[in-house]
């Protein structure tokens, strides 16, 4: 058949919700094959059962998205190679630190006509410099890669509360439209923007600002301070994105992937939650420890992203230009106390 076949690579909190959204559309739209494969990083549950088996028996991801039916046409598959074999639409949605390893295993195993989209918020830093996750996927697999980012706390979309998202694409509008159709529902409004780097950098960098917002909450500094941190953070997001990629558009920051994702993550995200706890404990308990205890297997992206951004900033001699980003990393790595998040204003460059 000529129908497009979709595989979701990843099955965490957002991965599972993405599979649910997609599965509702592949059943409805004739140009998609009904079945959606979802690759599961296999684990054994306390009951002794394999997560994959439980998902396929109950139609729920009992560990990462309990209580939500994914749709009968979602098939969990622990075998990565098998999961991608027949698919021409690959949806990447794992924590960013795992993408490179997954891509290495996929080389030579995917269809030649495959297209990818990344829902992954994060970046890698190579010897040559920063590498966005969509670029990593593109380069490793030799395929085109779009992105989907937005104000999308997974648990809210799982219960079909209204939200919006942005597809970022490079140059093929038709490909972007196909991705929009795959995700779009009346409660999940997706629009396309021709600015893949801008969209992806928004999704990546707001996690660093969310860590800062969590410190403000943990120190009980109030709403004005938090709003100030969000504003300063947004400004650094924009400046950093444009310095890395001059093609990044101002308008992207006003899409769902920009200011809206920044707001929702600073109000209700996991990065905010764990960094609040970090500040409440006066930095005495590590982020790794708090992540494991509070998130039960779900992963933070903000702390590692702050470190990756810091590496880029120090390498390029830009540290002074980005006091918020650099302070977040210095707090996370124990060099500064959480209260330093508001003690950097004298460091602000005059040009800002
Ligand atoms: P998650 O944090 O809920 O779960 C972690 C996942 O990583 C699990 O599926 C686990 O099985 C898997 N994993 C653990 N070790 C692994 C390994 N060695 N190799 C491969 N996989 C491994 O995941 P998520 O929420 O779906 O996050 C995926 C991406 O989506 C992240 O970049 C995140 O920032 C982004 N995102 C999340 C949300 C959200 O609300 N959860 C919303 C938008 C974007
Ligand atoms: P957290 O990972 O901080 O929960 O953010 C989720 C997100 O990206 C919302 O769009």
Can you describe what's shown?
By secondary structure, the chain is of the alpha/beta class. It contains 14 helices and ten strands. The strands form two sheets. The protein has an eight-stranded mixed beta sheet, sandwiched between helices. Helix 8 packs parallel to helix 10, helix 8 crosses helix 13 and helix 11 crosses helix 12. The longest helix has 23 residues. It is globular. It binds nicotinamide-adenine-dinucleotide and 1,3-dihydroxyacetonephosphate. 1,3-dihydroxyacetonephosphate (13P) binds next to helix 8, helix 10 and helix 11.
Offer a quick outline of the entry:
The chain is of the alpha/beta class. It has 14 helices and ten strands.
